[in-house]
Specification:
The complex is a heterodimer of chains A (14) and B (257). Chain A is mostly beta strands. Helix content of chain A is 0%, strand content 36%. Chain A has no helices and two strands. At the A-B interface, strand 1 and strand 2 of A face strand 10 and strand 20 of B.
Chain lengths: 14, 257
């Protein structure tokens, strides 16, 4: 099975 | 004082139609560079980044950087009232809590203005790091939309695999499986009908079709779509907006457990 990742860990707050 | 006059008003109508179901509220940022937006969907799985460069507007006045919070559903409702051939002008006074959309018919015999209340939106502005992509796929946008729609009637997720042979879109569901392979094809009459795969390295990633289908609502904006893939990072689905800029959708991959 697969889990949906989120964008938070890829993009940093700027 | 803000005043942006867009002769091809239909572009703004199409932009709103393509993002209003993905994001509820967003800040539109206006600067000397252009009119832009960056917003994530409520589950932080997808992000939309829009840029309409100032040069693309017939008249572009933005005295100072301004961020205008708008409910995209309401904005879409207002823009739906503009004709497809109408010229659209956005106006906002300094410190005002409203924005005015003015619609002019091409023959100037009908002028309408719609005023919409702005909202305060707490939105984090994300830094999108420069990424090196393993595979870049350029294909007709209608073809990509067709594939996403077809596969979503079979399964919920799609595996996009790029190899030397081409790009394969695969899904599986309760009723069976489906695979669509597109080969590189540059021997077409029109460049926008070509499928081009720039592939330094093979890559295979899994995505939720629900989001990709939502992105394809931007299909009327561009004849082609550019899909940039790299292992374990978000895919970028980009629709170029002729002479003005782009709308880019980022989607986080599904990860095997």
């Amino acid at each position: 099975s697969s889990r949906q990742s989120t964008l938070d860990k890829f993009f940093q707050n700027s | 004082m803000l005043e942006l006059r867009l002769v091809q008003g239909s572009l703004l109508k199409k932009v709103l139609e393509s993002i209003k179901d993905l994001v509820n509220d967003a800040n539109f940022d206006c600067s000397a560079t252009g009119f832009s937006l960056q917003a994530m969907d409520s589950s932080h799985v997808a992000l939309v980044a829009l840029l309409l460069r100032s040069e693309g507007f017939e008249h572009y006045r933005c005295d100072r950087n301004i961020s205008m919070g708008m409910n995209l559903g309401n904005m879409a409702k207002m823009l739906k009232c503009a004709g497809n051939d109408d010229i659209i002008t956005l106006k906002a006074d300094d410190g005002s809590d409203t924005v005015t959309f003015m619609f002019e018919s091409p023959t100037q015999d009908k002028i309408a203005d719609f005023e919409m209340r702005l909202m305060d939106i707490d939105s984090e502005h994300l830094g999108i790091p420069e990424a090196e992509y393993h595979a870049i796929l350029i294909m007709p946008s209608a073809e990509f939309a067709r594939i996403c729609k077809d596969l979503s009637s079979i399964g919920d997720t799609v595996v996009i695999s790029v190899t030397k042979e081409g790009v394969k879109f695969s899904t599986r569901g309760d009723i069976g499986t489906a695979n669509v392979v597109c080969r590189q094809n540059t021997t077409v009459d029109k460049p926008e009908e070509a499928t081009v795969i720039e592939m330094p390295e093979p890559v295979s990633l899994t995505f939720a079709l629900r989001y990709l289908n939502s992105f394809t609502k931007a299909t009327p904006l561009s004849n082609t779509v550019t899909i940039s893939l790299s292992s374990e990072i978000p895919v970028v689905v980009e629709y170029k907006i002729a002479e003005m800029g782009y709308i880019r959708f980022y989607l986080a991959p599904k990860i095997e457990e």
